[in-house]
Design brief:
Blueprint: H1 2-32, H2 38-41, H3 47-60, H4 65-89, E1 93-98, E2 103-110, E3 113-119, H5 120-142
Antiparallel strand pairs: 1-2, 2-3
Helix pairs in contact: 1-3, 1-4, 1-5, 3-4, 4-5
């Protein structure tokens, strides 16, 4: 049981860290893509509010439509991940015994929709997708 707890804590930490890098990018590029210092002015707004403003800033750039479309796709990708991140960080994990399989199980259940679940494998996959999404977002926004 203690090993599962430690594995779970490490995987949760990796997932949160991977998405934190995405969150930080949204602040950085609010600053880089605006002359008004929007990163400081909008420091307290939620993630979706920041990405909505980023999309507007992208649309205003004097770049090719292809470059702008790439940035918008990257923003949409991280927005989808934010929904998964919310399930991961705002719902309880549990460790339990599956008597049929005779093994310990770990998973997150969305408390208001218990059919929505995330297990350790899903968590690792999320971390991988968040890492790739952060790279894609950084490259797409940097090109602007």
């Amino acid at each position: 049981m203690e090993t599962l707890y430690r594995d779970l804590a490490l995987e949760l930490g990796d997932a949160v860290w991977a998405f934190a890098k995405v969150e930080w990018l949204t602040y950085e590029y609010l600053g880089y893509l605006s002359e008004e210092g929007l990163d400081e002015l909008l420091g307290d707004i939620g993630f979706r509010g920041r990405t909505a403003i980023l999309r507007r800033l992208v649309a205003r750039r004097a770049k090719s439509q292809e470059e702008k479309d790439r940035a918008i796709r990257a923003i949409l990708e991280v927005e989808k991940l934010s929904d998964e991140r919310n399930v991961i960080v705002h719902n309880p994990w549990k460790i339990w015994v599956d008597l049929d399989k005779k093994e310990f199980m770990t998973e997150i259940q969305k408390y208001s929709n218990r059919e929505k679940k995330v297990n350790l494998g899903d968590l690792r996959a999320f971390t991988d997708r968040a890492t790739v999404a952060e790279i894609n977002l950084r490259e797409a926004l940097h090109a602007l």
